[in-house]
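Bench log. Compound arrived from synthesis this morning; before running ITC I wanted a structural hypothesis for how manganese (II) ion sits in the protein. Inputs:
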Amino acid sequence: MIKEHILDIKQLLSAPKHIVIVPHKNPDGDALGSSLGLYHYLVSIGHQVTVISPNDYPLFLKWLPGNDAILNFELQNELALDHIEKAEVLFTLDFNALHRAGAMEIPLQKSTAIKVLIDHHQQPDDFATYIYSDVNICSTSQMIYHFFEMLNDTHSITPEIANCLYTGIMTDTGSFRFPSTTSTTHRVIADLIDKGANNSEIHNQIYDTNSYNRLQLLGRALNNLNVIPELNTAYIKLSQNDLNEFNFKKGDTEGVVNYALSVEGINFAAIFIEHPREGIVKISFRSKGEFDTNTFARNHFNGGGHVNASGGRSDLPLDETVDKFISILPSYQQNLKS
Ligand code: 5GP
Ligand code: MN
């Protein structure tokens, strides 16, 4: 972020403001961790702050400090709209295009608030007054830490803030194992632990608390795993029947696609999940190495994200969506080999 913009933002935050913070739809650990980390900080320096999530999110994120203060745009629509209307400053976190905020897209577009985008996804749209975008940083939560550095205010990081940012960095780096994890990430994490992040407990909350049904659904997903060795690709398909059978709850399929990517020799993996209520198939793409899932998702499945992790959607039925996927792959054969 350029120096003048930091000075502008410092000035902006020097007097109490109505502030709204928005993560992307179906927020993950990074979207909520960054939002709540920033929330606690802004409250501590005297602002009136509301975090509005476009929709619900998994139970394993609901222990985050500040969770109870989050408004759900779908369930608390009028109150949320009221806050957006009153907002003088709006932070959009962990997304690069307003449509990623789902039904909040239009109200956010209409808002006259000063908009600050902080995000690490590819190719951010030009909707914000101030943009802090860096696709080389592993997580928006790490960017919030750097944002505090730019404001010369890391000493204001409380244990609550540290727990939120740690969660976002941990989840977006696959527990510090993806290539986006750098020595800087580890230095930030070390400081967050020094400032009170309870690393072991966070890991326990996120990864070691499964329902029986979730594990059974994972079993079904692994049974549905298909491998196309000549294209170095693997995919998993989950129908609405699969989800119903195991009483699917939001978040139950989080991370499942990584099993497909872990198959020996596989560079590209996808999971297709049927969502008849919305009339779409939701897709997650993951890759190892050079294969660019962001471009693939943008070109064929209305989506986007990062080079090694993206998402998208399809309006076709589940089987036709998978057929389309399989039919596209051969044109990427060369890239898939690398
Ligand atoms: P996931 O597969 O875990 O839902 O998402 C992987 C990454 O791609 C995340 O960074 C997420 O924000 C992004 N992403 C997921 N779905 C979409 C989508 O439909 N459109 C865009 N532009 N990005 C997405
Ligand atoms: Mn993120």
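What the model suggests: The two ends are 34 Å apart (CA to CA). Residues 30, 94, 120, 139-140, 172 surround manganese (II) ion (ligand 2) (CB under 6 Å).
ITC booked for Thursday regardless.
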